Amino acid sequence: MSHTRLYRDGVLKAEGFPIADVSDHIADPAATVWFDLCAPTHEQLTVISEELGLHELAVEDVLSEHQRPKIDTYQSHLFLTAYHARLREGPLELTEVSIFVTKNALVTVRENDHFDIGEVVRRWDQAKEHAASGVAFLLHGLLDYIVDDHFALVECLDDEVEALEDQLFTDQPTANRHELQRRLFELRKNLVTLRRVVLPMRELVSGVIRCDLRIVRPEMAPYYQDVYDHVLRVSEWTESLRELVGNIRETHLTLQGYRLNDIMKRVTSWAAIIAVPTMITGFYGQNVPYPGEGQPWGFWVSTIAVMGTCVLLYQIFKRRDWL
């Protein structure tokens, strides 16, 4: 079944009809049409662009990969590029979503099927009392779903940052410290990726609200303002988390330096303790006469000197917290 919908006067009239029938419905000013394309070919986009009068530069941007989230205003339509993000094992997974907006049609073009368009449709059904707003209603549900997933993702990353903070000052084996450093690197990389797709959303949403085509009707303006507020919160939260992860990483490296210094102090202290009896026994091991040579009291004097020096050095190092 095709992902298509037809609204007329705020009422859902048909869905799942062939995309070839879209041009017939668009001719009706009272109708609002939505259809979705998943990884379309150049030929499919060419046919759609001819029917809706889409600009060739916008169609070219759909076929180009790794576009920046943006909004382009043309004479008869808007073109938006946004990214849906989800967290899986390893790096953050992004799905590019291109959106064409005319006065009575919304076209979504997904890079792949990782973006759940069914969830967007469910949101439309839950808020069908606003369907009379036409394209503004459909576009709001789509942007709201994308931004809400950004918000949920930032919350998940924030929980992970807090877990890393709790582990930072606990004594851990070397393997766990290496795992902590790896997780910090992956978390910082994911935040940088998320920041790259979240920050431009402020310009995108505000551009939709202020565009000359007047797509957003007055009754929908508060809902778009709510989406914009969520975008600001996600942007600020992402920035603060990125700085926090950088601080955690620097603190982790500093603590590693402290641990290394502590280990060096301990090793040096034990080396000094061992060096003194080695010096004494080495000196008396020379092939020269020494006090008490061949006498029992000479042996006991050297033994007491070795043990007494070791105990004295141990107490000194312990008092200075070197051991």
TrEMBL record:
A GO molecular function annotation here is: magnesium ion binding
CDD domains named in the record: TmCorA-like (cd12822)
Where is it chiefly localized?
membrane
Q: Which Pfam families match?
A: CorA
Keyword flag Transport? yes
Q: How does it sit in the membrane?
A: Multi-pass membrane protein
Q: Where in the cell is it found?
A: Cell membrane
Query: What sections of the protein cross the membrane?
Result: 267-285, 297-317
Q: Which domain of life is it from?
A: Bacteria
Coiled-coil ranges from the UniProt annotation:
147-197
Q: Does the keyword Ion transport apply?
A: no
Keyword entries, A-Z: Cell membrane, Coiled coil, Membrane, Transmembrane, Transmembrane helix, Transport
An example Gene Ontology CC term for this record: plasma membrane
UniProt lists the family membership as follows:
Belongs to the CorA metal ion transporter (MIT) (TC 1.A.35) family.
Q: What is this protein called?
A: Magnesium transporter
The record lists the organism as Spongiactinospora rosea
